[in-house]
Amino acid sequence: MNIMNTLKLIVTVALAIALTGGMTACSEWTEQEILPVVKPTVESENPDLYRQYLENLRNYKKTHHQLLIGWFDNSNKAPGSRAWHLEALPDKTDIAVLLDGDNLADFERAEMDAIRQNKGTKTLYLIDYEAFRQGVEERNLEIEQINTAGQEAADADGTTYVPIPFVDLAVELPGFMDRQLALLDKYGFDGLSIHFVGKGLLPADEEAAMRELQHVIFGKLSAVIQSHAGKLFLFEGLPQNVYDKSLLPAFDYIVLRTEKLDNIYSITEAAKRSVSLPGIPSGNIIVCASALSTDKTDLITGTIVDAAGSAQNAIIEIAHWVKTPDTFTKAGLGIYRINDDYYNAETDYKFTREAIEILNPSSKN
């Protein structure tokens, strides 16, 4: 039985159970009373059928298909909504990337195991070098302001001011990478993703400093990749800014963070620019869309302008783009902050589910 037929059977059984239960309850009512709401599920009512469905689902994920990857905001450790639960992701989600890989709650670890064992969904975590770098730069701006004010005050009253030393990115980086890489084994993740953008052409002195930073980042990453066979490793950012491009084939997928681009032409240009240089793999490219913002005043996030100049839902539009063949291999679609797509009046994860169907249409047989 293929997945589509299994799903149809699951829906039929669930509807029959719900309908039968509803008619029985009506016929036996003699007076109004408050009763607990019990929603029958195929898992509870027909466990054999559900087991077969899950087996088909896991087998599907072992086949060659275009991936659906979701970057998942797991910052809420006491969630009151299913949106914050990994188990609520659409079943055909291939990979979930946690935006915060540390301090996982018990329910997060349990759900990681559950979706891996039951649905074949892998959970990775993000090492966000760019956020770390930005944090150091912001801290140094604060230190500069403090030092300026302190020196001015000292000059005014004739005292001596001892300036606060700046944070050295090169000194802090090794410890940051070690702490982040240790999370792979600490929580039993299925892999990790490194977010590195870097910079293009630089003056000689800045290029030398950048090369040293990259040596630390990718040297430590390479050692972990070599010692963790079977794990998944994603590079997300700008591969053209990696100096030693011989390191890139070690990553399973190259993810282009295109979720902030405002038109479909820019997606094409970004992808072709990234794979144009020698040494950059072109057979495993993932591009990203952003879910619609939960902030109702934000009318930009999650939208993109199509070829006709009309604003469209970014997830759907980019899914169609991924489905269109090109000179490089489009390996799938990434959705940034995927759990924002949970909230929809029609169904949870409406646009994610539509994108999955676009990328890998269900069998009609």
Question: Describe it for me?
Answer:
The chain is of the alpha/beta class. The strands form two sheets. An eight-stranded parallel β-barrel has the order 1-2-3-4-5-6-7-10, surrounded by six helices. A hairpin with a 5-residue loop joins β8 and β9. α6 runs parallel beside α7. The longest helix is centred in the middle third of the chain and has 29 residues. The N terminus is likely disordered.
Output the CATH topology of the largest domain: TIM Barrel
Low-confidence stretches: 1-39
What is the total tally of β strands? 10
Across the major sheet, the strand order is 1-2-3-4-5-6-7-10
How many H/I helical runs?
Answer: 10
Structural class: alpha/beta
Strand content: 5-15%
* CA gyration radius, whole angstroms: 25 Å
Percent of residues in helical segments?
A: 40-55%
Number of domains: 2
Mean pLDDT: 89
| CATH class placement of the largest domain | Alpha Beta
The global form is globular
Sketch the major β-sheet: 8 strands, parallel, barrel
Oligomer: single chain
Tell me the distance between the termini. Answer: 10 Å
Order of helices and strands: HHHEEHEHHEHEEHEEEHEH
CATH architecture classification of the largest domain: Alpha-Beta Barrel
State the CATH superfamily name of the largest domain. Answer: Glycosidases
List keywords for this structure.
TIM Barrel, alpha/beta, 2 domains, 365 residues, two-stranded antiparallel ribbon, 10 helices, disordered N terminus, 10 strands
Task: Give a concise summary.
The chain is α/β, with parallel strands linked by helices and 365 residues long. 44% of the residues lie in helices and 14% in strands. It folds into two domains: 1-63, no CATH class; 64-359, Alpha-Beta Barrel (TIM Barrel).
